Structures are given as structure tokens and as C-alpha cells.
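Just curious: can you write whichever protein you like plus the matching C-alpha cells?

***
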Amino acid sequence: MNEYAQQLTVAQSDPSERAAFIRRTYAHLAGAILAFIGLEAYMINSPIAEMLLQVMSMRFGWLMILGGFMILGRLASGLAASAVSQTVQYAGLTLYVIAQAVIFAPMLYLAMYYSSPEVIPTAGILTLGIFGGLTLVVFTTKKDFSFLGSILTIGSFIALGLIVCAVIFGFNLGLVFSAAMVLLASGAILYDTSRIMNHYSPDQHVAASLQLFASIALLFWYVLRILMSLSRR
């Protein structure tokens, strides 16, 4: 991390280097999304997704999966931000995509077999549309959204606490919670996009793509939950 700290940030770099960073970051992000789609297609059409759904349906199964995901997520983020080698960075991004695919598999299985067929593609289109719009806001306004950091941290802890309570006490968080999480994820996209431009160095494109992928995944999760809930109604 010290090596990165001594370098210029993306915003301070010359235009050609900045443009190259943006191309690499979003190319890696697109690759991560495609890899995620491929893994989900495999899991849903194999016994893996159904097996994970059975684990999740156990009383504390979801907490086990969520806890494992949080541990792997922290590890993957650390690897992707590593200054040791690019191989280590790619290992972190790969690990994170796999972890996201595992945690998404049960819900996508339910969406595919127990909801309207248009639910998943609609959620994907809405997610990418929201992401594209928020990204455009950051790039056109050039505003630093780092002030959202503390708000997002507090909101994340509150959301995690509510999720744990919902699992322990067996209540449904409902549409209002999902809508609030869509707002939280949208704020995270603004924050992360601004942060990678103002605080990352030009050779941290792998870590930047992981950060953006994490925010997109969070947004997609709750957009999909809302559409699934409306579809059942």
C-alpha cells in the first residue's frame, strides 16, 4: 500500500494515463460480470444451486453463507489491492467473483424456477442502467463523493444488524428494506467511482474493478429481490 501511496492518483495523472486506467478498469469489470454470468449458468443448471438453497433454508444456514462470504470478500479485496504482483491481484478478483456467484446462486435459482421468466434479465438491465447513469454523474460533474463514506459505513452496519435479526427472529425485511438497500448500493457506486478516480493510482485497475463489481452486485441483489417480490404478487 505504501508503494501506491507514493504515486499520483488517477485524477492527478496525465489524460492519456487516466484514459488507459479507465479502459482497463471497465474492461476488467466487464470480464468479471461475464465470468459471474457463466458461473451462475453452470451452478443453476447443476445440483450446486439447489444444494446451496437447502443450506440457506436452514435456520442459521444463511448466516453461515453470509459470514463465509464476508471473510472471503475481505481476503479477495486485500489480494486485489496487493502491490506484490499482478498475479496476486487477479487471484483476488477471481476469488471475489466466485464468492459472489456462490452467494447469488440460491436466489437466482428461485428467480429462474419460481418467478416470471423476465425477472432476471429485467433486474440485470435495470442494474446496468442505474450503474451507467450514476457513473455518468461522477464523470461529468467530477465531484468528489468521498463524503458518502461515513454514511455508507453506518448504513451498512445497520443493514447487517437487521439482516442478522431477521434470520434469528424469523421475520421478513420486506420491500421497504430492499428499496433502502437499492439507495445504499447507488450511493456506494457514486462513492466507489469517485474514490477510484481520486484516491487510486493508475496501476490499481484490478482493485478498482473489484470495488465496482461489489457495488453492482449489491445493487443487482436488491433490485432482483424487489422484482421477485412484485412478481409473486
About this structure: Confidence is low (pLDDT under 50) at residues 1-5. The CA atoms of residues 122 and 227 lie 8 Å apart. The chain has one domain: 2-232.
